[in-house]
From TrEMBL:
<feature type="domain" description="D-galactarate/Altronate dehydratase second">
    <location>
        <begin position="568"/>
        <end position="696"/>
    </location>
</feature>
<dbReference type="InterPro" id="IPR007392">
    <property type="entry name" value="GD_AH_second"/>
</dbReference>
<comment type="similarity">
    <text>Belongs to the UxaA family.</text>
</comment>
<dbReference type="GO" id="GO:0016787">
    <property type="term" value="F:hydrolase activity"/>
</dbReference>
<dbReference type="Pfam" id="PF20629">
    <property type="entry name" value="GD_AH_C"/>
</dbReference>
<dbReference type="InterPro" id="IPR052172">
    <property type="entry name" value="UxaA_altronate/galactarate_dh"/>
</dbReference>
<dbReference type="Pfam" id="PF04295">
    <property type="entry name" value="GD_AH_second"/>
</dbReference>
<feature type="domain" description="D-galactarate/Altronate dehydratase C-terminal">
    <location>
        <begin position="290"/>
        <end position="528"/>
    </location>
</feature>
<keyword id="KW-0378">Hydrolase</keyword>
<protein>
    <submittedName>
        <fullName>Altronate hydrolase</fullName>
    </submittedName>
</protein>
<feature type="domain" description="D-galactarate/Altronate dehydratase C-terminal">
    <location>
        <begin position="773"/>
        <end position="852"/>
    </location>
</feature>
<feature type="domain" description="D-galactarate/Altronate dehydratase second">
    <location>
        <begin position="138"/>
        <end position="280"/>
    </location>
</feature>
<keyword id="KW-0456">Lyase</keyword>
<dbReference type="InterPro" id="IPR048332">
    <property type="entry name" value="GD_AH_C"/>
</dbReference>
Amino acid sequence: MDVVYQFEEVARLPLPGDNCAVAIHQLNSGTVIQYEGQILTLDYTVMEGHRFAVKAIAPGQDLLSWHLPFGVAIKQIQPGHYVINETVRGALSVRQLTFAVPAEPNFADQVSPYILDEENFRPAQASPAYEDTRTFMGYRRHEDRGVGTRNYIVLLGTTSHTGSYVNELASRLQSEWKNDSNIDGFVPVAHTEGGTEKPNNVDLLLRTLSGFMVNPNVGAVLVVDYGNESVTNKMVEAYAREHNYPIDEVLHKFVSLTGSFEEELVKGEAIVREWLSTVNTMQRTPESIRHLRIGLQCGGSDAFSGVSANPLLGWVSEQLVRYGGAASLAETDELIGAEPYVLSKVRNVETARKFLELVNRFKERTSWHGTSAEGNPSGGNMYRGLYNIYLKSIGAAMKKDPTTRIDYATEYGELMKDGGYYFMDSPGNDLESIAGQVAAGCNMIFFTTGNGSITNFPYVPTVKVVTTTRRFQLLSNDMDVNAGQYLEGKSMDELGQEVFELALQIASGQRSVGEKAGHAQVQIWRNWQQNDASRLDTLLHTPVPTGAPIEIEDKAVTRNISLQFSFTRHRNRQSSDNIGLIVPTSLCAGQVAGMITRRLNEQGAGYPELSRFVTLAHTEGCGTSGGPAESLFARTMIGYITHPMVKHCLLLEHGCEKTHNDYMRHQMDVMGVDASRLGYASIQLDGGIAKVSEKVEAWFADRLVAADPAEKVTVGLEGLRIGIVSVGAINKNAGEQLGVLTKIIVGAGGLVVIPENSGLLAEDAFSQQLFSTSQVRPSIAYGEHVHRNGFHIMETPTTHGVETITGLAATGVELIIALIGDRPMQAHPFVPMLQVTSDQDVLHNHKQDVDLVLEGNPSIWVNHILERSKEILEHSYVPRLYQKGNIDFQMTRGFLGVSL
């Protein structure tokens, strides 16, 4: 006789009366379950967190969790049947499963739209306030700033252009920090925004930067720009003063970088050193917990998020609000479908109306980009049982306790001026949403996770709450709280009180697990390209470049150049360098990849076979739209995986992203790339940061031992793979000579790639060397690996310099020549960039950053460029800005990418 399981042994109902249950561990096909006097037999294997019916559900009838609908049956569903939609079937199809899933879906994603009944609306009463108070040890600031839980010196880049500056400055200042001081550290806030012409998120960006400055966890802040970006220090200061941000109540300085990178770093160090004694005198004092402002987040969610971890945060938030503190619920698109619950208790009709306006505005913005706000759940979410946005939203909304009233609905980053429970507009992208909460004044973040997200913000402590005991045990070194105890019988009151006390300890200075791990990330709500749907049809049907080289004019160029270059060859791969590359498949894996890479380089691992290890931390793979943006991301990442300079490559997934390792394997199969030669590791599935680091290091060690030695080869100009970019005004002679250089290399059989947005293509002196017409279309897509040498133009959907370089390097070029008519460009993590100029103003301010000055007779400039290129490719010369750390990497989202 088959074993009969009691329902409580194998599943949970979110609320009594629901018609679908959640499996608490994987249940094989044929499992027999006793439920309320009936016997259920599972028709398919039900994965942990996935649902099966406990009641008969007729076609057209709602499927219910928490008494709210998350879909409609499209066929009869019997008790014991696995419930599944088409989206999850597709998501599971790229996974390497050992069991069958249903051949057809049995429910569709369909929920009736919510309509606010204003006529019968009744304002809700707040929960009774506690008469007594509790305290924590915090840093008292001016009354308009509140009380800090930390005391950091923040180095804030106004735009992405200064991101590498604040990163390098923070690195240099670390030796100044002492564990026993009252300063918690020096943190860089480098982000992706403000680097394009006329970004659509300017107001949002100014509000966020202003809020970052006055957050109570900031002891002092250095704000830096170049003075000529689309968002500048002057704009930030003007916005802050106009909107009454108390910037005069925080020690700060606005600095514009006008000199060389090294000179400005020295100046920055001097400014911060002058602040040290002042910031160190700031002391913790007993403060009422009404000064706590907590941001509520969920990431890497699973089916238990809404059962254990999110209700736990709801309990803690309700207590804090009753003590006079504030809590912030965010992630607008992750509440679609949960409106009846969210708006069941609201302070007034204006707040309810504002909440719905923000939701509808979010839906409209995503529609301009050819996607839907309902498309939020990632592949990791679906793998762990969140079938669609409705199910994800219902669970996410449990961060509001049923007894809690929504007091305010606010814009992204809008300051929280009073106690209460807030809803803040933001995307579901965790890091982008957290940045808004920090700008709004949150001095702690509570982050629930089912898969085990490792997210941390640099100067606001993040407390991570995991949904199940099994996942907590797997990732015990990276999680703070095991909410799975509730699933095993501990009462919510008891567990909530424990977490509330932990919150007070962390607010008072006890380091969270994430702080001990020593990694953090910042991402502000990224710019969106479209403001309406007028171009949507055109953008969705843009012709794909052919990949064939562009024919250039057969004009004779007489130059006696017989340079040869020493490269290496390994099997069918010929290159100027050999690196070990770690490719994070999403933004949340980037910082861990960076930590592993630094350790490998410090150990000298792989030398001399490998010159170094490199990682490519980026902002994509989580909380972003699919379609063209996702295809662009995959194409670019595969461009790097197949780059000729990469000898050994490993993919590191976070584990819950859209673009996980299995997704990337599938994309490589589609593109005909051999995925078997790569390494794969998972932060979540391999047991956390420490264990995955060991696995990655061991994989590279094994590869290095097994690798055949590379042979030295000598190549001529036909072996060159060059990218050429320009910034600022273009000198006619320089343009002409770069045209000659292009013709010589292409004529010899080499490769030259120029981005579509380069001013060189509009410069007659350059283009007349190559074309008889100015109407030349791109031959390759952004980030596309070039398969045929010759001359190519790469598509560039933005004007952002780092995004351009990121795509250009993925094409397979091994050297980028940058013609500088403004200021030097941020360098690439591993493709060397030769910065050349003939502009005297550039030389006056940035002579120490330039690698080659074009002066004298222009006819010899090509020779000088090739000679310096030879030195770089043969490693006898290292470009200056790479040496000094002025390095950045940023993926574009194309015209249609948008945060979800």
